[in-house]
Amino acid sequence: MFRTDRTRVRTLFLSDLHLGFRYSRPEQILDCLQRYQPEQLYVLGDFIDGWCLGRGWHWSDTCSHVVRRIVDLAAGGTRVRLVAGNHDDFLRSPLLQLLIQRAGMCELADEFLHQLADGRHFLVLHGDQFDPWEKATRLTSGALALLYDLLLQANSTWGYLTQCVQHGEASLVCRVKRRLRALGSHLNRFRTRVSGYARYRGFDGVICGHSHQPELLQLEGLVWCNTGDWIENCTAIVEHHCGTLELIEVYPQEAPHAAAEITSILQRVA
Asked: What is the pTM assigned to this prediction?
């Protein structure tokens, strides 16, 4: 589905698209990209799920349409900035970064400085550098990824058996995550580390991804924004031309594989 009624915004922030992963939501990603016409687009890590190359690669035509839409935005004048994440850390290769920069389609870095329309300065990054579990062993990360896959499979099976689409906070994955005290403290540590780094650097706020926990809130004088993901939540951050930030959600109709037609504003910070 191609839209002509696109909303013009100053900036659109997405992260954790995980294209190539069987539970990614390329239809909803594409709908979001077609819904908005941003002057600037940030893709904050885990754009491509490189980990799936060794355990099941799922690349659909819609995934290609997502890439094509981003290329078209860049060709049409949108400033596209790409951040590497832990699932596409191959983008951190200096040689690959040089080739992408020379191609001129996007800018690629581990972090960016973004100035809002109202003058506030935000640190923009993926955030995996501040994840203590990612800093452990690759074996630990792999085990957690396997557990996550099993939860997503259970959620999919439950939705099929009950004929009930589970997404966002209603999903089995989110309900399990809320009950895991260790995960809650881990997310708090992640939030504290990233916000502390941004505060130390003198930023007014931070926009990141990685944790698949969409948030937009004031955190001890700092604006904390997490874009969420496109597996569980289908969320993004939008900056309007006045500098107001919104956390929006795009989710499918009840019919399986239906186009995403509903956008809700979850949170707003001026």
From this structure: 0.81
